[in-house]
Structure formats: structure tokens, C-alpha cells
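HUMAN: I'm a chemist; might I ask for a sequence paired with its C-alpha cells?

ASSISTANT:
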Amino acid sequence: MRPQDIATLASHCARCGARDRSICSAIEDEDLNHLAVHSQHIDVAAGQCFIEQDELARDFFVVTEGHAKLFTLMSDGRRQVNGFAGQGQFLGLAANERYAFSAEALTPLKLCRFSHDGMRLLTAQFPTLEQRLLSEASNELVAAQGRMLLLGRKTARERLASFLIERGAGCHQATTIELPMTRTDIADYLGLTIETVSRTLNALRRDGLIDIDHITRIHLRNRHAIAALASGEAA
């Protein structure tokens, strides 16, 4: 790669809106040229998969713009939505030889792709990056444990409340939640039927907890009460 190309890519990394919240924040600005050498910027159209379940896991991905859904297909064709990814999230860490899930763009998506070999070189050169990856792995484990509780013990109201709080995570004062996924995706993620999702959202609206501004946007009228419901502290 030519030096001027590396400089251009490093400049792009410095301006990336996902930099502060992604693994890339572990690398200082003056070292971004090393990051740029091992990364590739790709665009994915809405509805297109960029990770295919059971394919060889050769790459890691950082979402730099847009939203994606992660899902697993069973042998009989049934689908389980495992999660949703947005700006700054790192995908592929839990993969061994093959990906255990598929990932599909919900909206037009921008990604930064790293090969496994490239990431190994980067972590060897930058120990802070390896520490950040360990933190990501820990966060994935905590999320998996929370999901077990969500599916195993929580009621439909508690599941919807948990989902809304989860969508607003990191923005403690946020009152408007954007939902780029379909109601079917939400139902698959929460282990509910689409009818139950719609009925429960309408019940939360009647109770004065939310307003449904649009099918893709929900306004939280009482975030504290919704958080209490999500944690099982309210009926």
C-alpha cells in the first residue's frame, strides 16, 4: 500500500464517528496509520448479509454507521434474532473456525473489516487493543447472561421494557428510541409473537409509559417506570 493511501485511510479513521466508542479508541491518533493498514472500509446495502452462519470466520467487523441484526437459523428454517448492532459495535469476536450466526444490514451500513491475521498483528503491537478486546468479550458474556434471564424468566411486559431500555443504553436521559428493525425482528429477539409485541406496546401506551410516534420511533414518557418494570420492580 502506498504511503499516501495509508495517510488517507488514517485520516478517515481519525474522522470516523464510531472511533470513540469502538475498539479503535484503544489506539492513539499518531498510530492510526497502523490501524489503517489492516482495515478495509465496506458498504452494505439494507437487507444484505455480510456474515453468513457456518461460513469460515476470517474477519472481524466494526459498525461505523447504520444498524444490523444478528440471527441464527435452525435446521428446520426457524429463525432466532440474537441481537442488534449499531455504531461502534464489534462483531465476530466469539467466532471460532466458523461463524455461529448471520448478520444482515437493517439500514444502509458502513463497516470496517479486519482480517484475523491483521487483528493478531495489531494486538501484538498494541497491548491496549488486546485489553479492549478482552473487555468486549466480557461484555458479550454479561449480555448473554442477561439474555438468558430475559427469555427464561421475564414476562412480555418486562421483556418489552428491557428492550426499550437496552435500545437507549448509554443515553441515560434519552426519551426517544429509534427502532430500525421490524416488529417481527423484535418478536424473534424477545421470544414472543408479533401479536404479543403489538398488544404489549399498546398496553404500555395506554398506561402512559410510552408514546408510539411512528412504527420506527417510540417516545419514553416515564423512563424511570420503564426501567423499574424491566428490572422486575413493578408489575
